[in-house]
Structures are given as C-alpha cells and as structure tokens.
Design a protein that fits this description.
heterotrimer, A mainly alpha, B mainly alpha, C mainly alpha, A: mainly alpha, Helix Hairpins, 3 helices, about 0% strand, C: mainly alpha, Four Helix Bundle (Hemerythrin (Met), subunit A), 7 helices
Chain lengths: ~100, ~500, ~170
C-alpha cells in the first residue's frame, strides 16, 4: 500500500494525545476537566485502533473503535450523573475539597 | 463470509447463565415499577433465587465445554469456577443488603437489579476468550458498581466514594484499552489463542518488545481494578464511603473477575514472554502487601482498616501470579474463593454493626460486642481470624498454597517478605478482637439491632464456608487443580 | 501529498485542541477545545478510510457526549469554580512523569513501528465496490454479533444507573 502517511506518525500522534490526557488527569483539579482528559485518552486509543486497522487491512479495528465509542457514551452518561449528585451534596467540584474521609 | 450466522443450540447453552442474569435484571426492574409502594425485600429474594438458577445453568453449561460465538466465549473448568464464585458473591450481597437498605430507607429494586447486572458483566469477563468481550464485560461490571457505590445519594461519603471510583476506574479503563490496541497492532488479533501464536513467533525480536509494552499497559489498567499497589490509592476512600454491603461486593466480585482476566490474559496470551512481565508482578505484590498492612496498622476506622487489608490481600494473590505456574493459578483460585467468603462476611456484618447511617465505624465502637451480641461477635471473630490466616480457617490454606506455589517457583525472597507481612497483619485484626471481647461498651453508643432473616443466613453461609474450606479443603482444591490448566 | 498536508492540519487540530483542553481555566473553554480536538480525530479517521467512524465520531461524540458535558457544566456553578485553584501543587512532578512516559512510548513506536507489520493482513480482502460501512455491518453482525448484543446490556445499565443517580426519590 502506498500509504502517504506512515503508520508510525499516527501512532506517535496517538501516544502524544494519550500522554496529554494522562497529564491533564493528574494536574487538573476540576472533576469535569479530569473527565475530559479521560475522553482525550479514549480518543487516542481509537486513533491507534483505526491506524492499525488501516495498516492490517482488517475492519475489526474499526469495530473495536466503535465499541469504545459506545462505552465512552455510556460512561459519560453515568459519570456526569454522578458528578451532578456530588455537586448537589457539596457545592464544589474541586477534588482537593472532596475529602471527608481522611483520618 | 457470513452465510450461516445463526448460533447453534450448544452455543446458546454455553451463554445461558449470562442470558438468565440479564433477563433477571430486567424482570426486577419491571417488578419494581409495577409493585408501587410495597416493601421490596421480596425482590432481593428473587434476585438471590435467580442468581442461584444462573449458577445451576453454569454447572449445566460445564457439561458441554468448548467455544461459542466464533471464539468469543469459552466454557471450561476455569470459567465455571469463576462464574460460580461471582454468582455466590452476588447471592451473599443481595441477601445481606436487605436489612441494611431497609434501615437506610433505600430498599428498592434498582439496587438488586444493578447487583445482578454487575454480576452478569463479571460473568462475561471470566467466560470471554477475546479482549473486546472482556472489555465490554468489564465495563458492564464497572458502570453498575460506580452507581452502587453512590447508591445512598444523600450521604456525602457515598457520592464521594462513587465519584472517586468512577474517575479512577475510567482512567484505568483507558489504560486497558490502550494495551488492547497495541496488542491488536502487534499481533493483528484480539483472540487470546491467536495472540499467543503470534507472540510465540516473535520471541526475542522487536515484536516481543511491543507485546511487552502492551502487557505493561494492561497491567496498569488491571492493577487499578484489583487495587494492587502502586495503583491502590482509590481503594480506602471508595470502600470506606460506599454502603457496607456494596464494599463487600466491590472487594470480592469485581476483584475476582479482574484476577481471572489477569490469569487468562497473562498466562494464555503473554505466556511466552513471561520473564519480561514477571518483575512488574513481583514489585506490585511486594508494594501491595507492605503498603496495605502498614497503613492498616494505624487506622482507627474499622471499615478503612478492612479496605487497606484488602490491598494487602491483593498483594498475596499477586505473589501467586508471580509464580507463573499451574500451582500458582490454582492457589489464586482457591485464595479468591476463601477471600470472597471471609471478606464479604466481614464487610456485611460491619455494615450491620455501624448502626443507622453508618455512624459508628471506629474500633472503639465495637467495645462490649462480645457480651451484647454473642452471635455477631463470634461470626466477626471467625472472619477476622480467617483474614489473619489462623489454621482451621480458609485463610490459612489460602496463604499456605500461595506461598507454596511461590517457593516452588523459586521466589524465596518474596515468600519471606510475604510471611513477615502476614505477621504484621495479624496485629490489627487482633486489636479489633481484643476491643470486642475485653472492653466494656460505652454509654453514648446505641445498641445494635438483632441480626435478621437474609443477613443472618448470608453470614452463617460465609462463616460455614470459611470453616469448611479451612477444615476440608479437598474437594475445592481438587476442582481448582483440575481447572488450572488454561487453554493455550 | 494531499494526504500529508491534511494529516498535518488534522494533527494540529488534535494536539492544539488537546493542549488547550487541559490548560484552559474555564471548563466551557476546555469543552470547546475538546470538541475541536475530537473533530480533528474524526478527520484522521476520514484520511484512513473509516467513513463510518467519522460519522459516528461527529454524531455521537461531538453531537452527543460533548453536548452532555456542556449541559452539565452549565448546571454547576462555574463562577465559583473558576476562582479556585485549577492545578495540582505537584503539577510539575506529574508533568515530568508524563513527559518521560510519553517520550518512552514515542521512542518505542519510532523504533518498533516496523515490527507492527508482521501481522498477517486479512485473509479475505473486502469485495471491491463495497463501502466501509457495508463491510463493517457485515462483520459486526456475523463475527462480532455477541459483543454487539452484550453492548446493548451495557447501554441498559448506563440508562438505569444515570436515572437512579438523577431521580428525585430513591
């Protein structure tokens, strides 16, 4: 296949995006932004799946990416519902202030 | 090409237990809606009966072992063992939560439905032989448990627990997925046997290095799920904040299923690059045991102490995984069964002892229990003694087989450090026993209500199981040894 | 040539959007930049002949998930949140770790990407004239029928779960 863009570029892009997600998860303190960082990580994973799928000329990689999207949607629904409940209870979404159990 | 894509009858039989569970969960939701304001304890009993039926179906499916749905599922002794284990945890959880939920005014069908769905997810996880199926099962189990952890929505501790569990769980999921993506890229497949075949041809070449990175990424993700150090930081807050019956469930069901996935993926798919990933398990086992036990020493809160102790127990199980042998696999399976019984018992009983609103979780609040509630105190003692690993209890044989497997594989140092850790662990469990029997109850703490119905049955079953595994481990051990041979 | 240029454009969207998502102070801005990043990922799907996923990415991710995010951000009190500390005190330690891991991954990929190609290409090359969506549908409903069905259970659980967390009375 005369792929104009080599596989490794996609993979490196995906790795960088994944690391960005991890970084965001670690140094953001707002729960919603932390959750957005997780979405970045999932998209990095999907990018890898699609790149491999294209390279191997199989469609199964596309199917995995599709399942990941389904799961991400389900997680988002439940996660945001939980986040709303926390906000109702505490009126804050800063993880540093959600620590009633440190003793 | 598709042609005949209708599944054969035998394939449906192999998937029967999960089908029953999904139908059961849906049925409970419907009944919850149509019964209006009537008390919902009967839904708990229905859930327990349905889980029992699923267990029968799992035994029936075991009589026709093999693959199903183009290699997605596989039914063998390993599958059957873990299916039965997670169903048992489900039954014990629903039985022991009826009284708790009534006390907290949250006795609704949704709770039981979520437990059943979560068990269905774990059942899919342990029966799958393909990474995408494993992943979907893992997510069903996780999403249901995120909600269960925050089920008492008006309790700030519960919602805090739910949000922490959710954030760290999703973070771990992303790592598992990234690992799966790399495996897919390196081998062109996500079916475990095919992965193994591809990895075998790559031994010593660059492909093996890629597979090793994939294994490391999956290790991070699954390490979070089993709360092995250094990925354990969520466990204390989550177990302490969640309603106690849910903590019981979390520390047994999802953990057992995640360990089953660990065994299947690492022994089957990555078996031939074992030396590359063994150090990860070694380090994680040692860290989990040490952090878990030493942190538990200084806890004044019993629930948090049990949470740290569950980290330590994950460490013992990781020791057996490090052994990378069939003896090790068998030891993991036996220990998980023993651990499920004693830990579900301990957490469920603790939920009862903390009284309304789970306000009394301190060690001192248990003072005088020995004279006030002899039965509850005796049961709690059995669970704690088994967690220590005293002879005649399940915990003793569990630890014995784990360290034996480790010695057989030449892990002398890990065994020595593990045994030292067990000795440290004995201290904090014994402290609870001393307070329970040697101290007088204080005036401010209200008396505990009597154990009733389902909770009593569940606790008696746990303690009977703990003692039975400790005195006659033979039958279970036989089955475990026969099932420890994974399909390669 | 066009491919390469488009790759750079989309990669810039993905990375630029990603960096801004994790560094903007306001949650709404983060969400908007995340949408840009997701659209860039969708463009990369298109470059790799995954038209179906491109459509799903736009409809489900950008149109569904991100909309949900924006709704929730508007339901919670933003003014107060924006005045609080947004970053961890140990952010530079985290950053160093992440950079190290990221660099390591990138290095492994750079060195080992060739090794990824040892996997055999598909035995049955797709019939000519079939689009990406048709092929996907065929495989999804034959080989991957079981995961597809089980995923419906996952969605059921998600619906039940979010209703429980959101409804008035337990």
């Amino acid at each position: 296949m005369p792929a104009a863009v080599p596989l490794s570029w996609y993979l490196v892009l995906s790795a960088v995006l994944f690391s960005l997600g991890v970084a965001g998860f670690f140094f953001r303190r707002n729960i919603i932004t932390m959750f957005m960082s997780i979405e970045l990580m999932l998209n990095a994973v999907n990018l890898s799946f699609v790149a491999f799928s294209f390279q191997l000329k199989q469609v199964s990689g596309n199917i995995f990416a599709f399942f990941v999207m389904v799961v991400a949607a389900a997680e988002a629904a439940v996660g945001l519902a939980i986040i709303l409940t926390v906000f109702k209870n505490r009126a804050t979404l800063n993880v540093d202030r959600i620590d009633s159990m440190k003793y | 090409m598709p042609g005949n894509s209708l599944p054969a009858a035998v394939e449906l039989v192999r998937f029967l237990p999960e089908t029953i569970l999904v139908l059961l969960g849906t049925l409970i939701m419907v009944l919850e809606a149509v019964t209006g304001d009537r008390p919902k304890t009967f839904l708990g009993h229905l859930a327990a009966a349905g889980l029992g039926l699923a267990a029968c179906a799992a035994v029936y499916a075991h009589s026709s072992p093999g693959e199903a749905f183009s290699g997605m599922l596989v039914v063998d002794g390993f599958t059957t063992f873990f299916r039965l284990l997670v169903y048992a945890v489900g039954i014990l959880t629903v039985l022991s939560s009826c009284q708790f939920l009534t006390r907290e005014r949250a006795n609704t069908g949704e709770f039981y439905a979520l437990v059943v769905f979560s068990v269905a997810g774990q059942s899919v996880m342990v029966a799958s032989h393909e990474l995408i199926m494993i992943f979907i099962g893992l997510e069903i189990s996780s999403i249901a448990t995120y909600v269960l952890a925050g089920f008492l929505r008006d309790d700030p501790r519960a919602t805090e627990s739910a949000v922490k569990y959710f954030l760290l769980g999703s973070f771990a999921t992303a790592f598992v997925l990234y690992g799966i993506a790399w495996i897919y890229g390196a081998t062109g497949s996500t079916e475990l046997t095919a992965i193994r075949a591809a990895v075998d041809t790559q031994a010593g070449r660059e492909g093996a290095m890629l597979a090793a990175v994939a294994a490391a990424l999956m290790f991070v993700g699954l390490g979070f799920k089993v709360s092995g150090a250094p990925f354990q930081m969520w466990a204390p807050d989550v177990y302490q904040g969640a309603p106690s019956p849910v903590s019981a469930f979390l520390s047994a069901g999802p953990k057992a299923a995640a360990f089953a996935v660990f065994l299947r993926v690492f022994e089957t798919a990555f078996g031939s690059i074992g030396p590359l990933w063994e150090p990860l398990f070694w380090i994680s086992a040692l860290l989990s045991m040490t952090i878990g036990n030493f942190a538990a020493l200084v806890q004044g809160n019993v629930k948090r102490m049990l949470a740290y102790s569950s980290i330590a127990h994950a460490g013992y199980i990781l020791v057996a995984l490090t052994a990378r042998s069939e003896v090790g696999t068998a030891a993991v399976m036996f220990y998980l069964a023993a651990y499920a019984l004693m830990n579900v018992g301990a957490f469920a009983l603790l939920g009862h002892l903390t009284r309304k609103g789970e306000r009394f979780q301190k060690v001192e609040d248990l003072a005088g229990l020995g004279s006030a509630q002899p039965l509850a105190a005796a049961l709690f003692s059995i669970f704690l003694l088994s967690l220590i690993g005293v002879p005649l209890t399940a915990g003793f044989f569990g630890k014995f087989y784990i360290f034996k497997a480790a010695l057989d594989s030449g892990l002398v140092w890990l065994t020595v450090l593990g045994l030292l850790n067990s000795a440290v662990g004995a201290y904090y469990y014994l402290r609870v026993l001393v307070v329970m029997y040697m101290r007088e109850a204080s005036e401010e703490v209200p008396p505990v209500e009597a154990l009733s119905g389902g909770l009593r049955a569940a606790l008696l079953a746990c303690s009977a199981g703990t003692l039975a595994l400790g005195i006659f481990p033979g039958p279970v051990l036989d089955f475990v040894n026969r099932s420890a041979t994974l399909i390669r | 040539m066009t491919d390469t240029v488009l790759f750079y454009v989309f990669a810039l969207l993905v990375l630029g959007g990603g960096v801004l998502t994790i560094t903007r102070k306001s949650a709404v801005h983060s969400a908007i930049y995340l949408i840009i990043s997701l659209i860039g990922v969708g463009g990369l799907y298109l470059l790799q002949q995954a038209e179906f996923l491109f459509a799903v990415q736009i409809i489900l991710y950008v149109g569904g998930v991100m909309l949900l995010f924006l709704f929730v951000i508007m339901l919670v009190n933003l003014e107060q949140a924006a005045t609080e500390r947004q970053f961890n005190k140990q952010w530079w330690i985290a950053l160093a770790c992440v950079l190290a891991v990221g660099a390591e991954l990138a290095y492994v990929l750079y060195r080992g990407a060739a090794a990824f190609q040892f996997a055999r290409p598909s035995e049955t090359p797709p019939a000519p004239g079939m689009g990406n969506t048709e092929i996907l549908a065929q495989v999804l409903f034959s080989e991957y029928l079981l995961p597809f069905e089980v995923a419906s259970v996952l969605l059921l659980v998600a619906v039940v779960g979010s209703v429980i967390m959101a409804k008035k009375r337990i």
